[in-house]
Design brief:
By secondary structure, the chain is mostly helical. Helix content is about 75%, strand content about 0%. It has helices at about 1-10, 15-40, 40-65, 75-85, 95-100, 105-110, 115-125, 130-150, 155-175, 180-200, 215-225, 235-250, 255-280, 290-310, 310-315. Helix 2 (about 15-40) runs antiparallel to helix 7 (about 115-125). The longest helix has 28 residues, at about 255-280. It catalyses: a ubiquinone + NADH + 5 H(+)(in) = a ubiquinol + NAD(+) + 4 H(+)(out). Keywords: Electron transport, Membrane, Mitochondrion, Mitochondrion inner membrane, NAD, Respiratory chain, Translocase, Transmembrane, Transmembrane helix, Transport, Ubiquinone.
């Protein structure tokens, strides 16, 4: 498990495209091994393996035929599409919701965070055509909120939320600024708190199965408000700063409007989900008492998300 975390971070210190791709494949190998030990649905593991094989083979072929010069626009587009498949960016995103329902919380967290570091880093090293930037931001901003409106499965909601966050990542990567990694760390901190909360409660998270403890409800609501980018939580300042940097370097107001509309839609989804969770849900599951050590762990992660992540914003 430690290798899955360290290898993506190691790639950030490299600039050779082939070496970064090699580390990506090694990281995928360790991740698939971890899935094999943690999951009972072996078909989903094989499905994920085939998706990664197709994307990796495409990347390898583009490197072989173009020798990293990227003078051929067609080769560049194929390479970007392969990275989009690895990142589950629309329209290459359909595989992610299919496997998400069968993943344990720990594996799901790694897939949505650490496994995306290297592909995003590779995108930051490439020239991204304006048409790709606009179309990707549009699809990542509109499709996830639309698909989330009638969902009740929490794993699917978090999967589509991750796809929606990709629009912000692409926006920041297009500016060739290291701020994209700061934004990714913000998102990772919040995701760590949410997934830890669900993992420690040891429950199947759907609309009909929640523990009714006041502490659990309160922590869940705080984390959802932070994820939605609602002020005064830390993620709001990160999004505000990202838009500020974008406006300083670009005059594309249409992209700004798309991002703002998407944020409002996601805010509605998160707030509506939290209100139903806190006030209106009829709890049908057996009550689960979180012991003292679990409560301290969740409180610590929440504190880390809300306050310590602000250090990243300063630097």
């Amino acid at each position: 498990m430690l290798n899955i975390i360290l290898l993506p971070l190691l790639s950030l210190f490299l600039s050779d495209f082939f070496m970064i791709w090699l580390i990506l494949e090694i990281s995928n190998f360790f991740f698939i091994c971890s899935m094999n030990f943690s999951m009972l649905h072996k078909k989903m593991i094989f499905f994920y393996f085939m998706i990664q094989v197709m994307a990796s083979f495409t990347i390898m072929m583009t490197l072989m035929f173009n020798s990293l010069l990227f003078k051929n626009n067609f080769t560049l587009i194929i390479l970007i599409l392969a990275l989009m498949l690895k990142l589950s960016i629309p329209p290459m995103h359909l595989w992610l919701p299919l496997i998400m329902k069968f993943l344990p919380w720990k594996i799901m967290f790694i897939l949505l965070t650490f496994q995306k570091i290297i592909p995003f880093y590779l995108l930051s090293l490439l020239y991204l055509p304006p048409l790709f930037i606009f179309s990707s931001i549009l699809l990542c901003s509109i499709l996830p909120p639309y698909n989330m409106l009638n969902l009740t499965n929490f794993k699917l909601l978090l999967a589509y939320s991750s796809i929606n966050q990709s629009s912000w990542m692409i926006l920041l990567i297009s500016m060739k600024n290291i701020i994209w990694f700061k934004y990714f760390l913000f998102y990772s901190f919040i995701s760590l708190s949410i997934f830890s909360l669900f993992h420690l409660s040891k429950m199947f998270m759907s609309s009909n199965y929640f523990p009714s403890q006041f502490k659990f409800n309160t922590l869940f609501t705080i984390l959802m408000m932070n994820m939605s980018g609602l002020p005064p939580f830390s993620f709001f300042y990160m999004k505000w700063y990202s838009l500020f940097i974008f406006l300083k370097s670009s005059n594309l107001l249409i992209i700004l409007m798309i991002m703002m509309i998407s944020s409002l839609l996601m805010l509605y989804i998160y707030v509506n989900m939290s209100i139903n969770f806190f006030f209106l849900m009829k709890f049908k599951s057996k009550l689960i008492n979180l012991n003292f050590s679990y409560t301290l762990t969740i409180l610590f992660l929440t504190y880390l998300t809300l306050f310590f992540s602000s250090i990243l914003f300063i630097f």
